[in-house]
Design goal:
The complex is a heterodimer of chains A (400) and B (532). Chain A has 400 residues and is α/β, with parallel strands linked by helices. Helix content of chain A is 48%, strand content 12%. Classes of the chains: A alpha/beta (400), B alpha/beta (532).
């Protein structure tokens, strides 16, 4: 396939946390809200006059200082973020909002706060920590509304004078939905028998929508969508279609590696992915926008931290539905090493998807930066692809 | 660096002066029992007899014999006397009596819990009528949501206590099999072994199966929360036992989570009512609330005694009793009141007599972090071997606020908030979660309040909430001039850190950093790695 016109542009943006577009948005006078978890309702951190950046630490190498503070037993993303913060890599942030989603990420940000890694010279800088929902009930919606008011909207209004009205939230939801439609439309090409976009390319575009000011990438995303409509797919692009499911994934190199092994990543269900993060929010006029946004995030949350059994079973059903929708031959359950929530979710998910839903599953843990352990992962994925092919052959070429 | 005045024991302690000499590697544990002088040895022997009578009364019940051969974890039953003995090393006088009074009560309580499990267990006793009135809940769960149910009509079964928690106390290798099962099924080895072992027991289908319903809680950590799903799946899908997930906010110091937590308590109560057919009784609740407050008052008094130069409450047995009383009981059973009273009376007597439990007190330490001290006689060893007095431990530093205990319409609403508060402030999570202040700042305040010059920091290598603040502990301890002694362990997996390896870390610190020699060199290396 011909290279996408803007792919290099997006790839370049992902090379550093403090990318050129953040600088540009700040020069426009916008407030930069940094956050660390998919459980933060994105429209609330993209109100007029603000833009959100989900913190990531691309090209992480040494994490020595963060390891001193947090030991080598904590997950690499949390240490990588702390290391980057200590290095001054997140100095663009005007505030940090952290849900108490997983312990390790929470501790990473607490260390950032205690070490005063950000906000120097900005008297309005603040850290806020939120409690987040555990279940899909109205009690959880009420909790979420209160938390968003107290830990996002109120401080934003008081410190930076941001408009937090219902109208402002509705406007932001519209923008958010536009972005979601765009990403989903691009992602829909992955459903084709001969897809005209690779899983890697899609991940780059999707990831950019989390770590760049959204309003500054919309034009190029639209251009990419138009370009894809006429892009010619390659004749024999893959040996097996796989759905990648798992924990925090801001390393496009991982998707690239999987595809280099002959698989095609036809769908993504992980933090920083298009599912569930790029799902449109439907608002009605009967209820305030904030409550509806919170309800959307609770109902569509597939984070393993949601503990009620409807969510536990629902997460596996969701994966199975995606696999069916995107015609996946197999599923890769990945977990970044030392992540507790996904350690258990990966075990239960890989077992249920295999035994209850009949999908071949590869269950792996991985480093934050796949470049540090390419060989092992490649061997695992290659073997998985071969096993899917063998199953296909054994079943006369029918879907495994 | 901060220093505290050494306190020399003016009295020669009766009996054995070097208890380390009685350990023998070839004999697995000890050559003989510790000689504590005539009076204390006789007392210790009578308590041993009492334990044997508890165990004897348990095993003569036929269904208990069946359960004994059915479940792998019941192996620990055989090692209960040893479990008690390992927690009395070097103890005399009131401390010995406090250890026996508290821990024997816990043992009797756990034995009763096992008997109850077997009675309702579909595979053992299969008493369906009894089972239908049972509510099973987690090992590390606060049972405040059961405070208003008549204990004769609805039975709270902390199913994981005898299966995992207690069995690990009495036999350090007992849960290794379940850890292996969990890891063979794909759970990594780096998660906390406690919820992992519980998940392993469920995967191995080695829990008793009983109850009309189950209430699970996101007790202490991400691992604990996540293990619930595995256990609940088996309960619901294989055994048809409905489960309720009682969500408990993590940021428990924030006032904006209380109403949510109170609402969850209401739902849990409604769930229990629905499945057991029994009704919540406010008279029973407020009677239990009075007992909770009495236990809180006793705990405050205990802390005050331990703030003096002559602390009286030591070690794992006392901490375990507090765990059982605070979380597993939550005021429901009146018997705990008498024990509370007796323990306090013993401690006051010991304090007035200026009783000391070693030749010398050199350092006063707060024991912080997630502890494996239930499976190792660490805290007694510290004071006997190195003169480091453990003043209190993180798991014993729990709620000190009183809850509403008079039955009024306002207090009935307040009661839900009180239960929610206690639930959020359950042991361990009240410090490991809720922001860094409850972990760091609370520790330094405690050091100040209890005049401690040292922190013995248990570094549970799989506890991410603790290790995530490692550097901050170091830096802040340095700023305050507090000695911080890191002691790594892997909670209930002795393959990662043996008892000897755990103790060596203390000895190395005391020798190399503090430049001190042991009070009792015979205790420095105890060959008990392979003991139960």
């Amino acid at each position: 396939m011909r290279d996408l016109k803007h792919l290099q542009y997006f790839e370049d943006l992902l090379q550093v946390a403090n990318n050129a577009l953040i600088k540009q948005a700040k020069e426009e006078g916008k407030v930069c809200i940094a956050y660390t978890c998919e459980n933060v309702p994105e429209p609330l951190v993209n109100l007029p006059g603000t833009f959100s950046i989900r913190l990531h630490a691309p090209n992480t190498g040494s994490m020595d200082i963060a390891t001193y503070y947090m030991t080598n037993l904590l997950c690499e993303p949390s240490r990588a973020l702390l290391e980057r913060a200590i290095e001054g890599g997140f100095n663009f942030a005007d505030c940090v909002i952290t849900p108490d989603g997983c312990t390790m990420m929470n501790r990473a940000v607490e260390n950032m706060e205690l070490l005063n890694t950000m906000g120097k010279g900005n008297p309005n800088f603040f850290h806020e920590y939120m409690e987040i929902a555990f279940k899909n009930t109205e009690n959880d919606v009420n909790l979420s509304v209160l938390q968003c008011k107290n830990h996002i909207l109120k401080p934003l209004h008081e410190k930076y004078g941001i408009d937090i009205s219902d109208a402002a939230i509705r406007k932001t939801v519209e923008d958010h939905n536009r972005l979601c439609r765009m990403i989903q439309s691009i992602g829909d090409f992955r459903k084709e028998e001969k897809p005209r976009i690779t899983g890697y390319e899609f991940h780059v575009l999707c990831l950019a929508s989390y770590v760049c000011p959204k309003h500054l990438i919309m034009g190029k995303l639209e251009g990419t969508l138009e370009e894809l409509k006429t892009r010619e797919p390659v004749e024999k692009p893959y040996r097996a279609r796989v759905l990648v499911v798992g924990s925090e994934m801001d390393d496009s190199g991982y998707i690239k590696l999987v595809e280099e092994c002959g698989a095609y990543v036809c769908c993504d269900r992980f933090c920083f992915g298009s599912y569930p993060g790029r799902t449109e929010i439907t608002l009605n006029d009967d209820e305030d926008a904030l409550t509806q946004v919170c309800r959307h995030y609770i109902q569509n949350c597939h984070c393993p931290r949601m503990m009620s059994m409807d969510k536990v079973y629902g997460r596996k059903q969701y994966v199975a539905d995606l696999a069916r929708q995107y015609k996946a031959d197999g599923i890769i359950y990945e977990q970044v090493k030392f992540c507790d929530p996904w350690a258990y979710e990966r075990m239960l998910g890989s077992s249920m998807l295999q035994h209850d839903f009949g999908y071949p599953v590869l269950s792996v843990d991985r480093p934050y930066n796949i470049a540090s352990s390419v060989g092992q992962m490649r061997t695992r994925v290659q073997a998985f692809v071969e096993s899917i092919e063998i199953k296909k052959l054994q079943r006369g070429g029918k879907k495994a | 660096m901060k220093t505290v005045e050494k306190v020399i024991n003016p009295v020669r302690r009766a009996g054995e002066q070097s208890p380390g000499k009685i350990y023998d590697e070839k004999l697995k544990v000890r050559r003989r029992r510790e000689w504590r002088g005539v009076k204390d040895t006789f007392y210790d022997y009578t308590r041993w007899l009492y334990l044997m009578s508890v165990l004897g009364r348990f095993i003569v019940v036929p269904r208990n014999i069946k359960g004994f051969f059915k479940y792998r974890w019941m192996m620990s039953y055989l090692f209960v006397p040893h479990g008690m003995d390992k927690f009395t090393i070097g103890l005399r006088d009131e401390a010995l009596r406090i250890a026996h009074t508290s821990f024997n009560f816990v043992i009797a309580d756990v034995t009763k819990a096992i008997g109850n499990c077997f009675r309702g267990d579909r595979r053992v006793g299969n008493d369906k009528a009894y089972s239908d009135k049972c509510v099973i809940t987690d090992e590390n769960s606060m049972v405040t949501f059961m405070m208003g149910f008549d204990t004769d009509k609805v039975h709270t079964i902390l199913r994981e206590v005898p299966t995992m928690f207690a069995s690990n106390i009495f036999h350090q290798f007992n849960v290794m099999h379940y850890l292996d099962v969990a890891q063979l099924n794909g759970i990594p080895g780096d998660v906390c072994p406690m919820p992992e072992a519980e998940a392993g027991i469920s995967i191995d289908d080695d829990f008793c199966v009983l109850g009309s319903c189950a209430v699970q809680n996101n007790t202490t950590c991400d691992g604990s929360l996540m293990g619930n799903g595995i256990i609940a799946k088996r309960l619901e899908r294989e055994y048809g036992i409905p489960t309720f997930q009682l969500a408990t906010p993590l940021r428990h110091k924030e006032p904006d989570v209380l109403e949510y937590a109170a609402e969850e308590i209401k739902k849990a109560i409604a769930f229990v009512e629905e499945h057991t057919g029994e009704k919540w009784d406010w008279d029973i609740y407020f009677a239990a609330a009075k007992r909770v407050n009495y236990a809180t008052k006793c705990r405050i008094a205990q802390m005050e005694i331990n703030s003096t130069p002559y602390p009286q409450f030591f070690g794992a047995t006392f901490s375990l009793y507090n765990d059982t009383n605070y979380m597993g009981n939550s005021g429901r059973v009146p018997d705990f009141v008498d024990i509370d009273r007796k323990l306090l009376s013993l401690a006051e007597k010991g304090y007035k007599a200026k009783r000391m439990y070693a030749k010398e007190y050199r350092h006063r330490a707060i024991v912080w972090g997630v502890q494996p001290q239930y499976t190792i006689d660490m805290l007694y060893w510290m004071v006997q071997c190195w003169g480091v007095v453990p003043l209190t431990d993180m798991l014993s530093v729990i709620n000190t606020d009183m809850i509403a205990e008079e039955d009024t319409p306002e207090n009935r609403e307040q009661a839900y908030r009180d239960m929610a508060m206690l639930n959020m402030e359950m042991i361990m999570r009240n410090h490991t979660h809720g922001g860094y202040k409850v972990l760091l700042d609370d520790l330094w305040e405690l050091c100040e309040k209890m005049n401690a010059d040292m922190v013995m920091m248990w570094e549970h290598m799989s506890c991410k909430a603790l290790t995530g603040m490692h550097g901050m502990f170091e830096e802040q301890a340095r700023e305050r001039g507090i000695h911080i002694m890191w002691v790594s362990h892997d909670l209930c997996d002795p393959r990662v850190f043996t008892r000897g390896a755990i103790r060596d870390q203390v000895s190395n610190y005391m020798r190399t950093v503090m430049r001190e020699e042991p009070l009792d060199p015979t205790l420095e290396n105890i060959p008990d790695n392979n003991a139960w």
